[in-house]
Amino acid sequence: MKRLAWLTDIHLNFLRHAGLKAFFASLPEADAFAITGDIGEAHDVAGHLRAFADRAPVYFVLGNHDFYRGSIAGVRAEIRESCREVANLHWMPDAGVVPFTETTCLVGHDGWGDGRLGDYHRSDVMLNDFKLIEEFGGFWESKDERLAKLHALGDEAAAHFRAFLPDALSRFRHVIVLTHVPPFREACWHEGKVSDDNWLPFFSCKAVGDALVEAAAAAPDRQMSVLCGHTHGSGEAQILPNLRVLTGGAVYGKPRVQRVLEVE
Ligand SMILES: [Fe+2]
Ligand SMILES: [Fe+2]
């Protein structure tokens, strides 16, 4: 039995020095941390991850906020560098299948609100993502151009899961999936309800959901548990008998541990 402390959407850029010190001092004893994105912003995410790594191995994905005031390519490059330098840091898109216990492994990818669920074309949501992440073109970008980018980011994550889940499920009874964006409508908890069609395009990653369902359906004797965040509303969704999704709750400026999972 090992203890995996799961955190999501901790947005540590909202804390000052004393708050950060108190937060890191409050972390529970664990064999490892699983962090499902929105850790900070482009300038500070790597530093915060290194602080976790001083305590225990860290298995993480990045969320949309982790690229704010920077670029996806730039942050990913910096994170890769940190992972090369710090043995305890593991960015899941590069880590593949990570054995955690004899029967449980971890697989993960950042994911992205891919615009496929809900009603993208009628939605009036304008996320800060499109202004604060260099790869997007701000207000001036057409909706179609933006949607192509959302699709590509979702598809990249789905391709990762298609590449690694069959092997993970053949070797382990239980696969813990780490991803930032909820992969199913039913998992898009926001203020106690499932998000509406206005928000769903940005709150869900359908491409990943499709890949997870395919993998779970092909391995009915295996169990998959998905940990995600992004919507800041906590909830659970049972998608298939062997596919369960936990979405983490979050409040800006009040980072916390979602739960400590006892993993067999
Ligand atoms: Fe968040
Ligand atoms: Fe997010």
From TrEMBL:
Cite the Calcineurin-like phosphoesterase domain residue spans from the record: 3-208
Question: What are the alphabetically sorted keywords of the record?
Answer: Hydrolase, Metal-binding
Alphabetized SUPFAM superfamilies for the sequence? Metallo-dependent phosphatases
Family annotation (InterPro entries) = Calcineurin-like_PHP (IPR004843), Metallo-depent_PP-like (IPR029052), Metallophosphoesterase_sf (IPR051158)
- Does the keyword section mention Metal-binding? yes
Entry's PANTHER family? PHOSPHODIESTERASE YAEI, TRANSMEMBRANE PROTEIN WITH METALLOPHOSPHOESTERASE DOMAIN-RELATED
- Tell me what this protein is called: Metallophosphoesterase
Species, as recorded? Paludisphaera mucosa
